[in-house]
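cron nightly-structures :: item 1 of 1
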Amino acid sequence: MDENFKFHIEEKDYVNFSKTDLTKEIDNFPVVYLIHNDEKMYVGETSNIYSRVKAHQKDLIKQESQFKKIKVISSNEFNKSATYEIETKLLEYMLADEKYILINTKLTQNAHEYYQKSKYQNEIFVPLWEKLKEIHLAKNSLRDIENKEIFKYSPFKSFSSEQQYIVEDILRRVNDEDKSTSLINGEPGTGKTLLLIKIAHDLIFNSGHDPKEMSKRITIVLPQKGLHKIYKRIFKRLGINNKDMIITGTHISKIPRDILLIDEAHRLKKYFSKQSKDLKHLRDGNDNYIDELELAYKNSKHLIICYDKDQTIRPADIDHNDRLHKILNESTYNLTTQFRISLGRSYLTLIKNILQIDYSEKLEKFELGDYEFKIFDSVEELHAKIKEKNNEYGLSRIASGYSWFWESNPASKRNRNKQNHEYGYDIVDNNYKLRWNSNITDWVHSKNAIEEVGSIHTLQGVDLNYIGVIIGDDITYNTNTRKIEAVKSNYYDEKGKPVKGTDKNDEELTKYIKNIYYVLLTRGIRGTYIYFKDQNMREHFKKIMNEFVEWLQM
């Protein structure tokens, strides 16, 4: 029992639960309850625990005959909104704690305000979680859980009315229509990946069909390998181990799909000669080329995709103007609320204006508040600050665009025969040396990530507490034209460069590089730190920041 907030956790006999188990608090106030064994758990809340347990004994949980005990969490300070809140948060954290497989299915908790909400979120839930750890119903700290990707993308989160509408409408269309296409547009941090996971979850568990059979009807396409492990872990914790459910874009055309969901669809591929070895699957029987989005449309009954036109970073990426979008735009949903960065849309509008990506939204003055935005004079200072934040909050990393050659690439000819990975350094600034990311898949959580620099391929779709962005000399600010321009000779991603002679004034390359930095500069939940190699870019950034933002200059 917590001395500030009094709650009880009482263990009861689940099989023989009777009215004699009803204490005054359990009987007169809403409660939260946990039915579990050593491997599986059901989390619920109710205003009538006796009737609810009897109902469980007749339906789904009756099938789990190994369930013997139930833990009832009660308090005379509970109300219905509070128990909904605690139930939702327990589902979020229990899933990411990974101690139990959750057998919950339907949960449509919407995010809403109610009296003393912050009290129940902080003063109540925090000590409750500590008590659950004490009695071995949980194992990880709240901070450690909150830094897990499986937590950030839990389908048991509270959803905004905007998100819930999209989920419900897409599910309705899948159930009612013979064929449907749904395009979900959203900027960084608007919850595209979370929404797609929620849609997949509800299709599997709330369709009225057997979840394992339903999972066989669903295919999730993830062009970015870094997201594969996250999706698999989430569905594994929900009891779905269908290894064929998650694929890359290269496998879209293998077999027809019933329901096809695509995350990060801006990274789907169209034919590009520099990547011809990787794009053989786009050749049709007449030696013509089609793109992965067209393959997805042709090979599915129901196509649901998440897309951001400003996150294409290579010529092979599906462009917003490709013709199939004319079909998909007939059923478009737009995510507008910013969930990642505390500053909301003001910050995204600022970055888009500074990088000259989009001027459609008027940039107005705003304050950073608790959000940290700082410019550093060296890579060494930037890295030191990120390591400091990583020690304090965890999940803080540095990243950069491709303005340095990959000297440490173990697959390169010059390094292939070296022993003990004694490769060269990549990013060198005033004798301070760093290497690029040593792997792509789940690099953010890899052992040595804090000592490395992440590329764009490690960070699309990823949330960080703090990010340090090294903006290299692959772009510059032209003081005569007042435009940001690519410096082609300083850009080392050969697959990211258009075919020679096809890109007038390097306009396409400039777009890709600006998009890369746009993605990197929108990863930080708590703060963004920057180092500029090009002084004109630094001064351009500071000029706009000084005009529109109250911030601490470094």
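cron nightly-structures :: done
The chain is about 30% helix and 20% strand.
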